[in-house]
Amino acid sequence: MPDIFALQIQGTVLTPSSGEEYKKALRRYSDLAILKASYIVLPSAFSDIPTVLSFATSQTPPIEIAVKGGGNHCSPWASSEGGLIIDLTRLNYVVVSDDKRSVRVQGGALWGDVYEECQKFEVDVVGCPFWFIGVGGYILGGGYGRFGGDHGLGLDNVLAATVILADGRIVRTSPTEESDLFWAIRGGGNQFGIVVEFVLKAFPAAQTVTLGSLTYPETDIGNVLSVVQEWKKVHTTKERVVLAFGNAARAAKVLHPFRDTLKPIVDRSVSVPNMLAASHVADGNFETTPSRMLLQGVIVSDIWTDMVLEVWDRWCEFTQKDDCKQTLVTWEIGRPEKIAEVGRADTAFYARDPHCVVVVHGGNRLPASDESTRAFGSSITDYMRKYNIQKTGKDIGVLLNYARGDEAPEDVFGTNLPRLRKLKAKYDPKGVWSKGFVIEPDFG
Ligand SMILES: Cc1cc2nc3c(=O)[nH]c(=O)nc-3n(C[C@H](O)[C@H](O)[C@H](O)COP(=O)(O)OP(=O)(O)OC[C@H]3O[C@@H](n4cnc5c(N)ncnc54)[C@H](O)[C@@H]3O)c2cc1C
Prior knowledge:
- This is FAD-binding PCMH-type domain-containing protein.
- Belongs to the oxygen-dependent FAD-linked oxidoreductase family.
- Keywords: FAD, Flavoprotein, Oxidoreductase.
- It holds the Pfam family BBE.
- GO terms for molecular function: FAD binding; oxidoreductase activity.
- The protein contains 15 helices and 20 strands.
- It is of the alpha+beta class and 444 residues long.
- The chain folds into 4 domains: 4-87, Uridine Diphospho-n-acetylenolpyruvylglucosamine Reductase, domain 2; 94-205, Uridine Diphospho-n-acetylenolpyruvylglucosamine Reductase, domain 3 (2-Layer Sandwich); 208-273; 289-407, Vanillyl-alcohol Oxidase, Chain A, domain 3 (3-Layer(aba) Sandwich).
- The strands form 7 sheets. Strands 5-6-10-8-9 form a 5-stranded antiparallel sheet. It has a 4-stranded mixed sheet with strand order 1-2-4-3, with helices on both faces. Strands 18-20-19 form a 3-stranded antiparallel sheet, with helices on one face.
- A hairpin with a 5-residue loop joins strand 8 and strand 9 (170-173).
- Helix 11 (305-318) packs antiparallel against helix 13 (370-392).
- The structure holds flavin-adenine dinucleotide.
- Flavin-adenine dinucleotide (FAD) binds next to strand 3, helix 4 and strand 10.
């Protein structure tokens, strides 16, 4: 066994013989994403990462490398069976600039770390509604959040980044520095290097965030959809169903038809002062999340009532099974103009047609139900994709952050794939980044 302990690095190296600490470091949001690595390295300084890369790539055969940010992707992209995990957990500093227009965030930070610092300076950034999601995975694959209506995707709000390339070089990238790389990391996922620092655009903080959930009896599905369809005609860029409803004064008005016409049986909507608090609001729900969670997403051009009702029927039938009762389907409806404003070829993120994101959160506890949960998620997402094509004549793509991993690369990257393949050959010719949604290099 090669001696990783001989490396002079700041940080911790864990192996299966490290006991509880090793087991803890293997944990992921979903048990389905856990694989037993031979080594887990937790660097305390990013300058040590090239040494670790060189160790892994110089072995015969080279050791597989996986990079872990927040550990939330439900595919085992941040894990490795028998390989080496570079776990970015300790690289989590966050610094708000003096002029409060940008925030420097290390690649292993969670959104909670970011909000903690942002609220002190009364600024916001486009980030995930949940504190435990990693900044790295979220941004590199897209990034839908509460401020998307006004500011677009997380990746549209990156001003610059520092990346460690497969050959160990540490490069800064921005619209004017190594601009090909800057283009590729915004939508190309983990395929071009380890981002050890992002510089994110900041803006003055919203004074209040109102969010939460209202629960209706199942007999109200038709009425709920009618209200949603009416709300869609008038909603502003600051509102998203189900989670984000803008400022408190407007929120009361927005929530009125949902509360007073429909009469929810549970009303858990609240107004909180900042994104840090907002990112903790759903904590109670996550405590009971099934351990073998599988998220599969699809994007659709609209929320057509008959499509929703078909999914509803299938969901009702599927969740009859005891171990699958906690399976959810969420529909995120926000104003899509800002995302669609950016050209398809301006970043590697392809899905620029106006869309809503639908996510099947397949939830079971027993391994015996894995297959049926996966099949349910796939059947729903396939159905909606086909429905969208029928209705609009367009296939608007697949999102990397909710991908299953078996999709065609053309579906995820669309017309950006040829350029991504060329850049893969330039930045990772030996395929060091072999985990995740792998892009084949084009050496032509
Ligand atoms: C409960 C839940 C809620 C979610 N809600 C949202 C949401 O509201 N909006 C949204 O857009 N997405 C959402 N997601 C999807 C989420 O953005 C993706 O799963 C994302 O990939 C998670 O990133 P991570 O760093 O936490 O995960 P990881 O599993 O650690 O990483 C995911 C991928 O990114 C790579 N990666 C991570 N950090 C880096 C880095 N610094 N440099 C290079 N590669 C890196 C990893 O190698 C891996 O391939 C949600 C997911 C879950 C589980």
